[in-house]
Amino acid sequence: MIEVKNIHKSFGDKTIIKDVSAVMKAGQCNLIIGTSGSGKTVLMKCMVGLFAPDSGEVLYHGQDFTAMNAEDKTEIRKEIGMLFQGAALFDSLTVEQNVMFPLSMFTKWTFRKKHERVNEVLARVNLVDANKKFPSELSGGMKKRVALARAIVLNPKFLFCDEPNSGLDPQTSLVIDRLIKEITIEYNITTVVNTHDMNSVMEIGNYILYMYQGNKEWEGTNKEIIFSKNQRLNDFIFASEFLKDAKDMRMLEETGKISNERNMEELLDKDAPTLVPPPDDE
Amino acid sequence: MTIFYDIGRYLLMIKGMFSRPENGKMYWKEFIHQCSEIGFGSLGIVAIISVFIGAVSTIQTAYQLVSPLIPPSTIGQIVRDTVILEFAPTLVCIVLAGVAGSRIASELGNMRVSEQIDALEIMGINTKTYLILPKIVASLLMIPLLVVMSMALGIWGGRLAGTAAGIISRSTYDRGLHEFFVPFNVFFALIKSYVFAFIISSIPAFYGYYVKGGALEIGRASTKAVVVSCILILFADYVLSALLLPT
């Protein structure tokens, strides 16, 4: 479990995070969502120690990470895996060497044992026959999977994913989302995902923290988010075409009316196309 | 004020490098890799420059020695001393600031902007110790070796050019090399090469490590690193000459 208490962070005169608190439980995907510039990446970087917060606490296992000395922080960091937005793979190393790197640095295992573990995690992220490839030879989705394999190779207790779906097509995004969810449950990890992809929110969001201009605006689950009364959150989530049906369903449920001109029968029919037909050229 | 801020940050970076390695074997591997990159990676250019410096020194010295009272072996002496005292350490290190320095700055800069340094930090690795220290230690080992090699090649290049152009015979040139030889000059050149090696590795590492932005900023940082390194090399050259050479 990770506890964030009253985190405050400024850069110069500009306050980025204002008094944010949250509790992120193990075995579930905890999502930080918000528009670009809302402070979610800064919050995540404060949580992992890449930025020092101006005030507030980040508790891992109940211990204040922000107040620890360098050695204690290193011990906690060994339990952290992180998937970066751009994957952050080491360019000069092959896929196998990238995944093996944490093992070589922090274990005294034999090469054979390390090799077995690398193959095991690469298979777990559905990436086989890519061991000898360099990052420049991989697609965006493959890079993310290698980065995820590297993040989980030491069996971390905490997994941080910064925009795991950025730059990926919807299908690959879904694969990555499902992988994150499966791994979270399988290893009972506390997973924190930073995203503005509403598909991810609905797919994996056990706990959702919505940030707006550095403030915690709303928190809840992916079931509750649809029924939120928060106007800013509604503006954010219903900006997505994907969720317009859900919005209509909600309106229908609450008022008996739908919010747009669409046919009610079409809306309730799951197989019916949800896209507005193209206008006639007449 | 920025200059004081940068100096402070540079000193903190140097201080931050000295921590216990998480895994000695991995650090040793990185050190050997850097020795190969800095040493063998610069071998060709250093060899070419050194031979031509020696050759040009011989021809130009012969051109300026017009008095029949000065023995031809003096050409050997002058080429030897210029190569050992100045050309091998200073000129080669200025070239190395461009070759190795820009490589260090762009490598670290690229690692910074692509979040590879952050990835290492998250793993619990002291990135200053793992990424910068091996580069500096490898430079301190390899650059003086390159300078010694440059001395030998420069003197050999002078001999080759002198005999090829019919300016001086081999035996006369060799006699000149032995005359009035001061061993301290070699020692002085090595001191300079150690100081320059530190500058060549630590200054680009500083600019690369703290780069912010994208590809454009990496290029700028790399250029700035080379310019600052060259200025500091020339300044250190002057200071060391003024302090250590008896005049």
CATH topology of the largest domain in chain A: Rossmann fold
CATH architecture level-2 label of the largest domain in chain A: 3-Layer(aba) Sandwich
Shape of chain A: globular
Which H/E pattern describes the elements of chain B? HHHHHHHH
Approximate strand percentage of chain A: 15-25%
**Number of helices, counting only DSSP H or I runs of 4 residues or more of chain A:** 10
The total domain count of chain B is 1
| Number of H- or I-type helical stretches of chain B | 8
* Gyration radius of chain A, in Å: 21 Å
Helix percentage range of chain A = 25-40%
User: Percentage of helical residues of chain B?
Assistant: over 70%
Number of strands of chain B: 0
Strand runs of chain A, count: 10
> In the residues of chain A, how many domains can be counted?
2
Mean pLDDT score of chain A: 84
Major protein interface: A-B, 26 and 17 residues
The biggest beta sheet of chain B reads: none
Could you give me the name of the CATH homologous superfamily of the largest domain in chain A?
P-loop containing nucleotide triphosphate hydrolases
Share of β-strand residues of chain B: under 5%
Tags for this entry?
heterodimer, A: 282 residues, 6-stranded mixed sheet, 4-stranded antiparallel sheet, 10 helices, 10 strands, globular, disordered C terminus, B: 247 residues, mainly alpha, 8 helices, elongated
